[in-house]
């Protein structure tokens, strides 16, 4: 649930709110969900093949420009839009959770209950009409013998 309960030596209940838990400021992707997606370095984007090289100073300055601009652009964008976007994602996932809990699961349960009723009626019809028919066919053809001869 939302709260976790812990007990100390005196058996007093200590409530720890999960909304204010400590977050890791060093490892910010502990489940590595963005490991392959947004980990882009200069060498992943810009490369000069053999025989087509720019001047060494241009190459070094391009590397520095790319790295620093990517770093500061990300920091500025996350400072401006990070909290509003986090608010939107929180709202979206809250809506998804609400719909799933209050609409999807009850609808699936309702369909399962209805399909069980239809399944019982279908099973009864099969047992009543088809089973005797196929049993009779089985008895009719049970005396048929097939012999396979190989002619040379």
UniProtKB/TrEMBL annotation:
Alphabetic keyword roster: Cell membrane, Golgi apparatus, Isopeptide bond, Membrane, Transmembrane, Transmembrane helix, Ubl conjugation
Keyword Transmembrane: yes
PROSITE patterns with a match to the protein in the record: CAVEOLIN (PS01210)
Alphabetical list of InterPro entries matching this protein: Caveolin, Caveolin_CS
Gene Ontology CC annotation, any one: focal adhesion
Pfam families referenced in this protein's UniProt entry, alphabetically: Caveolin
Family: Belongs to the caveolin family.
Annotated protein name in UniProt: Caveolin
Organism: Kryptolebias marmoratus
